[in-house]
Amino acid sequence: MTAEGSAILFPGQGGFDGAALNAAGMKYRQVGETFEAVDAVAGETFGKSVSAVLFEGAPLTADDLVRQPGWVSQLAVYASDVAAWRILQENGLRPRILVGHSMGEVPALVAAGVFCVEDGARIVAERLRALEEADLPAGRMAALTLDGQRTRRLLGLLDDPAVVVAAENHDRQTVISGPEPAVGAALRVARELNAGGVLLASPYAFHNPALEPVRAPFAARIGGLPRQAPRTDVYSPILRRVYRADDDLPALLAEHLVRPVDFRATVRALHEDGVTTFVEAGGLGSLGRCVERVLPDADDLTIRSTFTVDADGRLGVERTLASLSGDAEPDPFERFWADYGARLVARVQAALTASAAALAHPAPPAAAHDPGSAASMEPAAPSPVPAGAPDRAELLASVRTLYAQALEYPEEVFTEEVLLEAELGIDSVKQVELLTRVTGRYGLPPSDVRLSDHDTVGKVVDLLHARLTGGDVSVAAA
Q: What is the pTM of this model?
Protein backbone atom coordinates (compact mmCIF):
# COMPACT_ATOMS: atom_id res chain seq x y z
CA MET A 1 0.00 0.00 0.00
CA THR A 2 1.56 3.24 -1.13
CA ALA A 3 0.60 6.26 0.95
CA GLU A 4 1.73 9.31 -1.02
CA GLY A 5 0.75 11.73 1.71
CA SER A 6 2.24 9.77 4.62
CA ALA A 7 5.21 10.22 6.95
CA ILE A 8 6.65 7.68 9.37
CA LEU A 9 7.84 9.18 12.67
CA PHE A 10 10.63 7.57 14.70
CA PRO A 11 10.76 8.59 18.39
CA GLY A 12 13.99 9.05 20.28
CA GLN A 13 14.69 8.73 23.98
CA GLY A 14 11.64 7.76 26.03
CA GLY A 15 9.73 6.29 23.08
CA PHE A 16 9.23 2.87 24.62
CA ASP A 17 6.33 0.72 25.80
CA GLY A 18 7.40 -2.68 27.10
CA ALA A 19 3.90 -4.15 27.29
CA ALA A 20 3.16 -3.25 23.67
CA LEU A 21 6.57 -4.47 22.53
CA ASN A 22 6.03 -7.83 24.25
CA ALA A 23 2.55 -8.14 22.75
CA ALA A 24 3.89 -7.33 19.29
CA GLY A 25 6.69 -9.86 19.75
CA MET A 26 4.12 -12.62 20.21
CA LYS A 27 2.41 -11.76 16.89
CA TYR A 28 5.14 -10.44 14.61
CA ARG A 29 8.39 -12.25 13.85
CA GLN A 30 10.06 -8.90 12.97
CA VAL A 31 10.38 -8.04 16.66
CA GLY A 32 12.43 -11.13 17.50
CA GLU A 33 14.53 -10.83 14.33
CA THR A 34 15.35 -7.17 14.99
CA PHE A 35 16.33 -7.73 18.61
CA GLU A 36 18.45 -10.72 17.62
CA ALA A 37 20.47 -8.43 15.33
CA VAL A 38 20.75 -5.73 18.01
CA ASP A 39 21.72 -8.30 20.66
CA ALA A 40 24.68 -9.32 18.50
CA VAL A 41 25.96 -5.72 18.55
CA ALA A 42 25.26 -5.35 22.28
CA GLY A 43 27.21 -8.54 22.92
CA GLU A 44 30.25 -7.43 20.95
CA THR A 45 30.20 -3.91 22.46
CA PHE A 46 28.96 -4.36 26.03
CA GLY A 47 29.16 -8.12 26.54
CA LYS A 48 25.44 -8.42 27.32
CA SER A 49 22.05 -8.85 25.64
CA VAL A 50 19.25 -6.28 25.44
CA SER A 51 16.60 -8.98 25.06
CA ALA A 52 17.60 -10.57 28.37
CA VAL A 53 16.62 -7.34 30.11
CA LEU A 54 13.45 -6.61 28.15
CA PHE A 55 11.81 -9.99 27.61
CA GLU A 56 12.68 -12.04 30.69
CA GLY A 57 10.20 -11.14 33.39
CA ALA A 58 7.46 -8.53 33.54
CA PRO A 59 7.42 -5.98 30.68
CA LEU A 60 9.31 -2.79 31.42
CA THR A 61 7.63 0.60 31.32
CA ALA A 62 9.36 3.70 29.98
CA ASP A 63 10.08 4.62 33.63
CA ASP A 64 11.66 1.22 34.27
CA LEU A 65 13.78 1.54 31.15
CA VAL A 66 15.46 4.80 32.14
CA ARG A 67 16.66 3.12 35.33
CA GLN A 68 18.59 0.61 33.24
CA PRO A 69 22.16 1.26 32.05
CA GLY A 70 22.33 3.77 29.21
CA TRP A 71 23.23 1.18 26.57
CA VAL A 72 20.10 -0.83 27.43
CA SER A 73 17.70 2.11 27.22
CA GLN A 74 19.19 3.56 24.02
CA LEU A 75 19.39 0.25 22.14
CA ALA A 76 15.90 -0.77 23.35
CA VAL A 77 14.33 2.38 21.86
CA TYR A 78 16.35 1.97 18.64
CA ALA A 79 15.35 -1.68 18.22
CA SER A 80 11.71 -0.94 19.04
CA ASP A 81 11.62 1.74 16.31
CA VAL A 82 13.22 -0.52 13.72
CA ALA A 83 10.98 -3.50 14.57
CA ALA A 84 7.86 -1.34 14.24
CA TRP A 85 9.07 -0.02 10.88
CA ARG A 86 9.79 -3.53 9.59
CA ILE A 87 6.26 -4.65 10.46
CA LEU A 88 4.82 -1.67 8.58
CA GLN A 89 7.14 -2.04 5.60
CA GLU A 90 6.83 -5.81 5.26
CA ASN A 91 3.06 -5.48 5.36
CA GLY A 92 3.21 -3.22 2.32
CA LEU A 93 3.37 0.35 3.63
CA ARG A 94 5.37 2.63 1.34
CA PRO A 95 5.51 6.11 2.91
CA ARG A 96 6.49 9.27 1.16
CA ILE A 97 8.99 10.38 3.80
CA LEU A 98 10.67 9.27 7.05
CA VAL A 99 11.24 11.58 10.03
CA GLY A 100 13.28 10.90 13.17
CA HIS A 101 13.11 12.85 16.42
CA SER A 102 16.58 13.31 17.95
CA MET A 103 18.12 9.81 18.26
CA GLY A 104 15.17 8.60 16.17
CA GLU A 105 17.02 9.83 13.08
CA VAL A 106 19.24 6.74 13.29
CA PRO A 107 16.38 4.21 12.87
CA ALA A 108 14.92 6.51 10.19
CA LEU A 109 18.16 6.23 8.20
CA VAL A 110 18.11 2.45 8.71
CA ALA A 111 14.52 2.34 7.44
CA ALA A 112 15.66 4.22 4.33
CA GLY A 113 18.34 1.59 3.65
CA VAL A 114 21.27 3.91 4.40
CA PHE A 115 22.59 1.63 7.16
CA CYS A 116 21.85 -2.00 8.00
CA VAL A 117 20.14 -2.83 11.30
CA GLU A 118 23.39 -3.89 12.96
CA ASP A 119 25.28 -0.75 11.91
CA GLY A 120 22.45 1.44 13.14
CA ALA A 121 22.84 -0.25 16.52
CA ARG A 122 26.59 0.37 16.35
CA ILE A 123 25.98 4.09 15.80
CA VAL A 124 23.77 4.22 18.92
CA ALA A 125 26.29 2.22 20.95
CA GLU A 126 29.31 4.25 19.84
CA ARG A 127 27.55 7.53 20.57
CA LEU A 128 26.98 6.40 24.15
CA ARG A 129 30.58 5.20 24.52
CA ALA A 130 31.91 8.51 23.24
CA LEU A 131 29.75 10.37 25.75
CA GLU A 132 30.84 8.17 28.64
CA GLU A 133 34.54 8.54 27.81
CA ALA A 134 34.27 12.34 27.57
CA ASP A 135 33.63 12.54 31.35
CA LEU A 136 31.37 15.58 31.01
CA PRO A 137 29.82 17.53 33.92
CA ALA A 138 26.32 16.41 34.92
CA GLY A 139 23.67 17.80 32.59
CA ARG A 140 19.88 17.65 32.60
CA MET A 141 16.95 18.28 30.30
CA ALA A 142 13.50 19.62 31.16
CA ALA A 143 10.23 20.10 29.28
CA LEU A 144 8.46 23.45 29.73
CA THR A 145 4.83 24.13 28.80
CA LEU A 146 5.84 27.14 26.72
CA ASP A 147 6.54 27.76 23.05
CA GLY A 148 10.07 28.35 21.86
CA GLN A 149 9.88 32.15 21.84
CA ARG A 150 8.63 32.40 25.42
CA THR A 151 11.15 29.82 26.56
CA ARG A 152 14.00 31.88 25.11
CA ARG A 153 12.69 34.94 26.94
CA LEU A 154 12.63 32.95 30.16
CA LEU A 155 16.20 31.78 29.61
CA GLY A 156 17.18 35.38 28.96
CA LEU A 157 16.13 36.19 32.53
CA LEU A 158 18.66 33.67 33.79
CA ASP A 159 21.46 35.11 31.65
CA ASP A 160 23.20 31.72 31.56
CA PRO A 161 24.36 30.75 28.05
CA ALA A 162 24.91 27.17 29.19
CA VAL A 163 21.11 26.59 29.24
CA VAL A 164 19.68 26.39 25.72
CA VAL A 165 16.56 25.35 23.85
CA ALA A 166 17.16 21.72 22.89
CA ALA A 167 13.87 20.87 21.16
CA GLU A 168 10.65 22.60 20.12
CA ASN A 169 7.95 19.92 20.01
CA HIS A 170 4.79 22.04 19.76
CA ASP A 171 3.38 25.35 20.93
CA ARG A 172 3.01 24.12 24.50
CA GLN A 173 6.19 22.07 24.89
CA THR A 174 9.79 23.19 24.58
CA VAL A 175 12.73 21.20 25.95
CA ILE A 176 15.76 22.89 27.49
CA SER A 177 19.14 21.41 28.37
CA GLY A 178 22.17 22.49 30.35
CA PRO A 179 24.03 22.02 33.64
CA GLU A 180 21.86 20.45 36.32
CA PRO A 181 21.76 23.48 38.72
CA ALA A 182 20.95 25.90 35.90
CA VAL A 183 18.15 23.74 34.50
CA GLY A 184 16.70 23.48 38.01
CA ALA A 185 16.79 27.28 38.30
CA ALA A 186 14.99 27.61 34.95
CA LEU A 187 12.26 25.30 36.21
CA ARG A 188 11.78 27.37 39.35
CA VAL A 189 11.50 30.58 37.31
CA ALA A 190 8.99 28.91 34.95
CA ARG A 191 6.78 27.90 37.86
CA GLU A 192 6.93 31.40 39.32
CA LEU A 193 5.61 32.60 35.97
CA ASN A 194 2.76 30.05 36.14
CA ALA A 195 4.30 27.86 33.44
CA GLY A 196 4.62 24.14 34.06
CA GLY A 197 7.86 22.26 33.72
CA VAL A 198 9.30 18.84 34.50
CA LEU A 199 12.74 17.28 34.54
CA LEU A 200 13.27 14.56 31.95
CA ALA A 201 15.06 11.30 32.67
CA SER A 202 17.98 12.02 30.35
CA PRO A 203 21.55 11.04 31.23
CA TYR A 204 23.06 13.97 29.30
CA ALA A 205 22.22 17.52 28.22
CA PHE A 206 21.67 16.59 24.58
CA HIS A 207 21.42 19.17 21.76
CA ASN A 208 23.65 21.53 23.68
CA PRO A 209 26.99 23.13 22.66
CA ALA A 210 28.44 21.71 25.88
CA LEU A 211 28.73 18.36 24.06
CA GLU A 212 31.10 19.83 21.47
CA PRO A 213 34.08 17.79 22.82
CA VAL A 214 32.23 14.59 21.86
CA ARG A 215 31.61 15.48 18.20
CA ALA A 216 34.95 14.59 16.65
CA PRO A 217 35.51 11.34 18.63
CA PHE A 218 32.00 10.12 17.84
CA ALA A 219 32.30 10.93 14.12
CA ALA A 220 35.62 9.06 14.02
CA ARG A 221 34.10 6.00 15.68
CA ILE A 222 31.40 5.60 13.01
CA GLY A 223 33.36 6.93 10.02
CA GLY A 224 34.13 3.47 8.63
CA LEU A 225 30.57 2.11 8.60
CA PRO A 226 29.31 1.29 5.09
CA ARG A 227 26.33 3.26 3.85
CA GLN A 228 24.07 3.48 0.82
CA ALA A 229 22.03 6.23 -0.81
CA PRO A 230 18.57 6.53 0.85
CA ARG A 231 15.78 4.63 -0.92
CA THR A 232 13.18 6.86 0.76
CA ASP A 233 13.56 10.53 1.69
CA VAL A 234 14.60 11.12 5.31
CA TYR A 235 13.78 14.56 6.69
CA SER A 236 15.86 15.81 9.61
CA PRO A 237 14.19 18.14 12.16
CA ILE A 238 17.75 19.08 13.19
CA LEU A 239 19.10 19.95 9.74
CA ARG A 240 15.67 21.19 8.57
CA ARG A 241 16.12 19.41 5.24
CA VAL A 242 16.16 16.00 3.57
CA TYR A 243 19.38 13.98 3.74
CA ARG A 244 21.34 13.83 0.49
CA ALA A 245 23.31 10.95 -0.97
CA ASP A 246 26.55 12.96 -0.79
CA ASP A 247 26.14 14.03 2.86
CA ASP A 248 28.99 13.38 5.28
CA LEU A 249 26.76 11.31 7.57
CA PRO A 250 29.27 10.67 10.40
CA ALA A 251 29.84 14.42 10.72
CA LEU A 252 26.13 15.24 10.56
CA LEU A 253 25.15 12.57 13.10
CA ALA A 254 27.82 13.91 15.45
CA GLU A 255 26.47 17.41 14.88
CA HIS A 256 23.12 16.24 16.30
CA LEU A 257 24.68 16.33 19.76
CA VAL A 258 25.02 20.13 19.72
CA ARG A 259 22.16 21.33 17.47
CA PRO A 260 18.50 21.71 18.50
CA VAL A 261 15.49 19.75 17.22
CA ASP A 262 12.65 21.72 15.62
CA PHE A 263 9.88 19.14 15.38
CA ARG A 264 7.14 21.79 15.37
CA ALA A 265 8.45 23.48 12.21
CA THR A 266 9.04 20.09 10.60
CA VAL A 267 5.43 18.99 11.05
CA ARG A 268 4.12 22.28 9.70
CA ALA A 269 6.41 22.10 6.66
CA LEU A 270 5.41 18.53 5.88
CA HIS A 271 1.72 19.31 6.20
CA GLU A 272 2.05 22.33 3.90
CA ASP A 273 3.76 20.00 1.43
CA GLY A 274 0.80 17.62 1.41
CA VAL A 275 1.57 15.14 4.17
CA THR A 276 -1.64 14.35 6.06
CA THR A 277 -0.98 10.87 7.48
CA PHE A 278 1.53 10.49 10.32
CA VAL A 279 2.38 6.99 11.59
CA GLU A 280 4.63 6.61 14.64
CA ALA A 281 7.00 3.64 14.45
CA GLY A 282 7.83 2.97 18.10
CA GLY A 283 6.43 3.10 21.60
CA LEU A 284 4.00 5.38 23.48
CA GLY A 285 2.64 7.46 20.59
CA SER A 286 3.97 10.76 21.97
CA LEU A 287 5.05 12.12 18.57
CA GLY A 288 1.56 11.57 17.19
CA ARG A 289 0.17 13.66 20.05
CA CYS A 290 2.71 16.37 19.23
CA VAL A 291 1.44 16.43 15.64
CA GLU A 292 -2.10 16.96 16.92
CA ARG A 293 -0.93 19.92 18.96
CA VAL A 294 1.14 21.43 16.14
CA LEU A 295 -1.86 21.23 13.76
CA PRO A 296 -4.90 21.64 16.04
CA ASP A 297 -7.11 23.10 13.30
CA ALA A 298 -6.24 20.66 10.51
CA ASP A 299 -9.26 18.60 9.49
CA ASP A 300 -7.39 16.29 7.11
CA LEU A 301 -5.06 14.54 9.58
CA THR A 302 -4.73 10.79 10.08
CA ILE A 303 -2.51 9.87 13.03
CA ARG A 304 -1.63 6.26 13.81
CA SER A 305 0.57 4.43 16.30
CA THR A 306 2.31 1.04 16.38
CA PHE A 307 3.69 -0.16 19.71
CA THR A 308 0.87 1.11 21.89
CA VAL A 309 -1.81 -0.83 23.78
CA ASP A 310 -5.17 0.72 24.52
CA ALA A 311 -7.26 0.12 27.65
CA ASP A 312 -8.79 -3.01 26.11
CA GLY A 313 -5.49 -4.57 25.12
CA ARG A 314 -5.60 -3.73 21.40
CA LEU A 315 -2.24 -3.28 19.69
CA GLY A 316 -1.89 -0.03 17.76
CA VAL A 317 -0.03 -1.55 14.82
CA GLU A 318 -2.94 -3.87 14.01
CA ARG A 319 -5.41 -1.02 13.66
CA THR A 320 -2.85 1.02 11.74
CA LEU A 321 -2.29 -1.72 9.15
CA ALA A 322 -6.05 -2.24 8.76
CA SER A 323 -6.81 1.45 8.29
CA LEU A 324 -3.95 2.16 5.89
CA SER A 325 -4.72 -0.88 3.76
CA GLY A 326 -8.22 0.47 3.14
CA ASP A 327 -10.04 -2.19 5.15
CA ALA A 328 -13.38 -0.77 6.21
CA GLU A 329 -13.73 0.15 9.85
CA PRO A 330 -16.53 -1.82 11.54
CA ASP A 331 -19.86 -0.23 12.31
CA PRO A 332 -19.47 2.01 15.40
CA PHE A 333 -21.96 -0.04 17.42
CA GLU A 334 -20.29 -3.31 16.40
CA ARG A 335 -16.91 -1.91 17.36
CA PHE A 336 -18.26 -0.69 20.71
CA TRP A 337 -19.92 -4.03 21.41
CA ALA A 338 -16.78 -5.95 20.47
CA ASP A 339 -14.75 -3.81 22.86
CA TYR A 340 -17.15 -3.52 25.79
CA GLY A 341 -20.05 -5.93 25.27
CA ALA A 342 -18.71 -8.80 27.37
CA ARG A 343 -17.86 -6.44 30.22
CA LEU A 344 -21.30 -4.82 30.16
CA VAL A 345 -23.09 -8.19 30.10
CA ALA A 346 -20.99 -9.42 33.02
CA ARG A 347 -21.74 -6.33 35.08
CA VAL A 348 -25.47 -6.48 34.37
CA GLN A 349 -25.57 -10.18 35.27
CA ALA A 350 -23.70 -9.50 38.52
CA ALA A 351 -26.12 -6.70 39.41
CA LEU A 352 -29.18 -8.88 38.65
CA THR A 353 -27.79 -11.76 40.71
CA ALA A 354 -27.14 -9.44 43.63
CA SER A 355 -30.66 -7.97 43.37
CA ALA A 356 -32.26 -11.42 43.26
CA ALA A 357 -30.29 -12.53 46.30
CA ALA A 358 -31.34 -9.43 48.21
CA LEU A 359 -35.04 -10.05 47.45
CA ALA A 360 -34.86 -13.73 48.39
CA HIS A 361 -32.99 -13.11 51.63
CA PRO A 362 -33.78 -9.65 52.98
CA ALA A 363 -31.38 -8.40 55.58
CA PRO A 364 -32.68 -8.53 59.20
CA PRO A 365 -33.31 -5.24 60.98
CA ALA A 366 -30.10 -3.69 62.16
CA ALA A 367 -29.45 -4.32 65.84
CA ALA A 368 -28.21 -1.63 68.17
CA HIS A 369 -24.46 -1.48 68.04
CA ASP A 370 -22.77 -3.20 70.95
CA PRO A 371 -19.02 -2.63 70.99
CA GLY A 372 -18.58 -5.81 73.00
CA SER A 373 -20.70 -8.15 70.89
CA ALA A 374 -19.12 -10.96 68.95
CA ALA A 375 -20.68 -9.73 65.73
CA SER A 376 -19.05 -6.32 66.06
CA MET A 377 -15.66 -7.99 66.44
CA GLU A 378 -15.87 -9.81 63.09
CA PRO A 379 -14.48 -7.96 60.06
CA ALA A 380 -16.96 -7.20 57.30
CA ALA A 381 -16.64 -9.40 54.24
CA PRO A 382 -14.93 -7.59 51.38
CA SER A 383 -17.07 -6.49 48.46
CA PRO A 384 -16.76 -8.71 45.41
CA VAL A 385 -14.72 -7.36 42.50
CA PRO A 386 -17.11 -6.37 39.70
CA ALA A 387 -16.73 -8.57 36.64
CA GLY A 388 -14.65 -6.93 33.95
CA ALA A 389 -13.22 -4.17 36.13
CA PRO A 390 -9.89 -2.97 34.67
CA ASP A 391 -6.78 -4.07 36.55
CA ARG A 392 -4.38 -1.62 38.13
CA ALA A 393 -1.89 -1.71 35.26
CA GLU A 394 -4.61 -0.68 32.79
CA LEU A 395 -5.71 2.14 35.09
CA LEU A 396 -2.14 3.39 35.47
CA ALA A 397 -1.63 3.51 31.70
CA SER A 398 -4.95 5.31 31.23
CA VAL A 399 -4.27 7.90 33.96
CA ARG A 400 -0.77 8.63 32.66
CA THR A 401 -2.07 9.18 29.13
CA LEU A 402 -4.91 11.43 30.31
CA TYR A 403 -2.62 13.55 32.51
CA ALA A 404 0.00 13.85 29.75
CA GLN A 405 -2.57 14.96 27.18
CA ALA A 406 -4.21 17.45 29.53
CA LEU A 407 -0.99 19.01 30.80
CA GLU A 408 1.15 18.88 27.63
CA TYR A 409 3.87 16.95 29.45
CA PRO A 410 5.72 13.89 28.11
CA GLU A 411 4.00 10.77 29.35
CA GLU A 412 7.20 9.33 30.84
CA VAL A 413 7.35 12.03 33.56
CA PHE A 414 4.19 10.68 35.20
CA THR A 415 5.82 8.02 37.34
CA GLU A 416 3.87 6.55 40.23
CA GLU A 417 5.95 8.46 42.77
CA VAL A 418 6.25 11.93 41.20
CA LEU A 419 4.60 14.63 43.34
CA LEU A 420 1.90 16.35 41.29
CA GLU A 421 2.23 19.78 42.89
CA ALA A 422 5.66 19.87 44.49
CA GLU A 423 7.51 18.43 41.48
CA LEU A 424 5.24 19.01 38.48
CA GLY A 425 3.69 22.30 39.56
CA ILE A 426 0.07 21.14 39.13
CA ASP A 427 -2.09 23.36 41.33
CA SER A 428 -5.04 22.10 43.36
CA VAL A 429 -7.67 23.43 40.94
CA LYS A 430 -6.10 21.51 38.05
CA GLN A 431 -5.75 18.37 40.19
CA VAL A 432 -9.48 18.46 41.01
CA GLU A 433 -10.30 18.90 37.32
CA LEU A 434 -8.12 15.94 36.37
CA LEU A 435 -9.60 13.73 39.08
CA THR A 436 -13.08 14.58 37.81
CA ARG A 437 -12.11 13.69 34.26
CA VAL A 438 -10.53 10.41 35.32
CA THR A 439 -13.50 9.28 37.41
CA GLY A 440 -15.90 10.34 34.68
CA ARG A 441 -14.03 8.22 32.13
CA TYR A 442 -14.92 5.13 34.16
CA GLY A 443 -18.50 6.14 34.89
CA LEU A 444 -17.83 6.89 38.56
CA PRO A 445 -19.65 9.73 40.29
CA PRO A 446 -17.41 12.55 41.52
CA SER A 447 -16.41 12.37 45.14
CA ASP A 448 -14.68 14.67 47.58
CA VAL A 449 -11.14 13.59 48.34
CA ARG A 450 -8.33 15.12 50.30
CA LEU A 451 -5.78 16.15 47.67
CA SER A 452 -2.93 15.79 50.13
CA ASP A 453 -3.80 12.08 50.34
CA HIS A 454 -3.64 11.73 46.54
CA ASP A 455 -0.61 13.80 45.64
CA THR A 456 0.96 11.26 43.24
CA VAL A 457 -0.21 9.40 40.16
CA GLY A 458 0.13 6.11 42.02
CA LYS A 459 -2.24 7.28 44.75
CA VAL A 460 -4.77 8.49 42.18
CA VAL A 461 -4.65 5.07 40.53
CA ASP A 462 -5.10 3.36 43.91
CA LEU A 463 -8.20 5.50 44.55
CA LEU A 464 -9.68 4.58 41.17
CA HIS A 465 -8.88 0.90 41.61
CA ALA A 466 -10.46 0.83 45.06
CA ARG A 467 -13.66 2.47 43.84
CA LEU A 468 -13.95 0.27 40.75
CA THR A 469 -13.36 -2.95 42.68
CA GLY A 470 -15.49 -2.07 45.69
CA GLY A 471 -12.54 -1.56 48.03
CA ASP A 472 -12.62 0.63 51.11
CA VAL A 473 -11.91 4.23 50.18
CA SER A 474 -13.36 5.81 53.28
CA VAL A 475 -9.89 6.90 54.39
CA ALA A 476 -9.79 9.22 51.38
CA ALA A 477 -13.07 10.96 52.10
CA ALA A 478 -12.78 14.62 52.87
A: 0.75
